Amino acid sequence: MNLMKKLQPLLEAEGLAVFYHDAEDERGLDQLIIPLAKEDGSALNVELNTLPDPHGLYPTTQFIQCFISLTMQVPQTHELTIRALINDINLELPIGSFNFHESGIVFYKYTIVVDKEYPHETIDALLNALDISNHLFQSYEQSFLSLLVK
Questions:
Q1: Which candidate, 16, 14, 23, places its Cα nearest to that of 5?
Q2: Phi, psi of 70 (to 5 degrees)
Q3: Is the pLDDT of residue 54 over 90?
Q4: What is the residue-wise DSSP string for 59-122?
Q5: What tens digit of pLDDT does each residue of 5-51 get?
Q6: What is the model's pLDDT at position 34?
Q7: DSSP three-state, residue 4
Q8: How far are the Cα atoms of 17, 77, 128 from residue 40, in angstroms, in the given order?
Q9: Residue 34: Cβ within 10 Å count
Q10: Is 55 exposed, middle or buried (0-12, 13-18, 19+ CB in 10 A)?
Q11: Distance CA 55, CA 37 (A)
Q12: What does DSSP assign to residue 55?
């Protein structure tokens, strides 16, 4: 059983709604989607996936990436301004980073390193990563949105 399938019931036991997507779908990676409440009452989706180890360099280690994307697509006319803001924000961030995808989506990602064999021990680190990712994303989300509505 893959790590995402092992983590799903453990995260659900922590009271989170968790949705599993198999690597065989359009995303290409096993993935968990976790809706988290924002301060304004709306929700944002945190996507968790395991990063591949194509050369087998880390047989007992797994990298789990928390990924949150902005719900608005950035028009090409705002791309340089958004990239400059991303650069400024990333200089301040203690962990993780914002980035800009060629499709026009701004996203935040944070990667944690866990032991493949001990998913129960992974839960505390993962809950912490979800909390940090949610907080940092919301802390800067309005900065991006205010540039996009100008």
A1: 23
A2: -70, 140
A3: no
A4: TTEEEEEEEEEEEEEPPGGGHHHHHHHHHHHHHH-SS-EEEE-TTSEEEEEEEEEEETT-HHHH
A5: 888 999 999 999 999 988 775 556 789 999 988 888 888 899 999 88
A6: 94
A7: helix
A8: 19, 29, 21
A9: 21
A10: exposed
A11: 38
A12: T
Give residue 72's Cα distance to chain centre. 16
Two structure tokens written together for 96:
């993780």
Task: Say if CB 83 and CB 101 are below 8 A apart.
Answer: no
Per residue in 79-103, is it b (16+ CB within 10 Å) or e — as a string?
eeebeebbeebeeeeeebebebeee
Q: What mean pLDDT do residues 57-70 have?
A: 90
Rounded average pLDDT over 108-130:
86
- In the block, residue with structure tokens 């200089």: 91
Structure tokens at 75: 């028009």
- Residue 15 is inside which H or E element, if any? none
The pLDDT tens digits for 131-150 are 998 888 888 988 888 887 76
Pair type for strands 61-73 and 31-37: unpaired
CB 103 within 8 A of CB 95: no
d(CA 150, CA 145): 9
The residue assigned the tokens 């998913």 is 119
